Amino acid sequence: MIAAREFRVMEGDALTVLRTLPAESVHCCITSPPYFGLRDYGTAQWAGGDAACDHLMPPNGGDKGRDRAASNGTFHDSPIPNQIRQQFSRVCGKCGAKRIDAQIGLERTPAEYVARLVAVFREVRRVLRADGTAWVNLGDSYASNPASGGAQSSKMTGGEHKHTPMMNGYRRPDDLKPKDLCGIPWRVAFALQADGWYLRSDIIWAKPNPMPESVTDRPTKAHEYIFLLAKSERYFYDADAVAEATTDEEYRTVGKIRPSLDTFAVVDPEKARTRFNLHVQPGGRLTRNRRTVWTQATQAYPESHFATFPEELIRPCVLAGCPIGGVVLDPFCGSGTTGVVACGLDRAFIGIELNASYAAMARNRIQNDQPLFNKMVM
């Protein structure tokens, strides 16, 4: 067991590493898995074939890539320029080498992607305490191009990502038409629910600064989902820690019934809570239960990792889902944002990251955030 402000970032495949952790050893999981068909995180290795081969498709001729037409989001065949030549996705067409990769997100279909996440979160549920929760951030994709759904997601900081290695291997399922929204977050949520999780809440992450999209036949997406899942029917949730300030309208509503809001709260705090959803805080301050729409701008991280999500988005998850001194887990650690927030709030942190350079980045980032307090353990 690690103590508050201690942290550990473990390298390796999430499913494999999770199996090494003791059962019921963490209080809360807060994570953002790789999105479906969005990014290649650079963890693949090639087996067999020619060791000197670059495993890249020829820039012209027989092997052609798929270039997104900016006008309508559809595809046409076009030669791939040398500077953005596409890598063979599973078998090199030049030397026959096989691409071996443990990363999640490059599956051929949404069903394969969902199945792999279910397996990972089955292990997450095992290592969670009986009163533990999981907070899972996911974005969506479109059937015509899995990568196009990520142009406005927390996983992307640049412009349109037109060429991704997974495009070669992607296969649109029979139940999806071109341009269909895949519904990936809800597919995952329902699959986790069927696997035994309690699906307690869908939280909308509303982005006031979404990435622009060049589409003209649908609204620009400006939200993602955070799902709150629980291991058991009863679980730890600190509502007061994430309560919101009451609004003027709520003051007026209660004032019509009681002449004094302060008097009403002091005389009958239970009715204030159950009837009006108001909470009496120390000193008599009134707050309301946190709502399910969280407005938070995206946040860039100056290092090389492109899949960070804002620290302020994670803060309420930590406060509500993990007691002080408890352990927060992130099986897709990335640049370590969850660890920075958890340690800063007097919790311990365990991260798992497949990419060795990102794991090192996370360790340095968490350690340097508050070097006098955060302590790395092996």
> How many distinct beta strands?
16
> Share of helix among residues?
10-25%
3D shape? globular
Strand order of the largest sheet: 13-8-9-7-2-14-15-1-16
CATH architect. name of the largest domain: 3-Layer(aba) Sandwich
CATH class type of the largest domain: Alpha Beta
Number of domains: 3
**Unreliable residue stretches:** 61-84, 146-154, 156-168, 255-259
CATH topology type of the largest domain: Rossmann fold
Please trace the helix and strand order, writing H or E for each element: EHEEEEEHEHEEEHHHEEEHEHEHE
Describe this protein's structure.
- It is built from nine helices and 16 strands.
- It is α/β, with parallel strands linked by helices and 378 residues long.
- The protein folds into three domains: 6-40 and 113-239 and 292-376, 3-Layer(aba) Sandwich (Rossmann fold), CATH 3.40.50; 45-100, no CATH class; 244-288, no CATH class.
- Strands 13-8-9-7-2-14-15-1-16 form a nine-stranded mixed beta sheet. Strands 10-12-11 form a three-stranded antiparallel beta sheet.
- β11 (278-280) and β12 form a beta hairpin.
- The chain is globular.
- 38% of the residues are buried.
- The model is unreliable at 61-84, 146-154, 156-168 and 255-259 (pLDDT under 50).
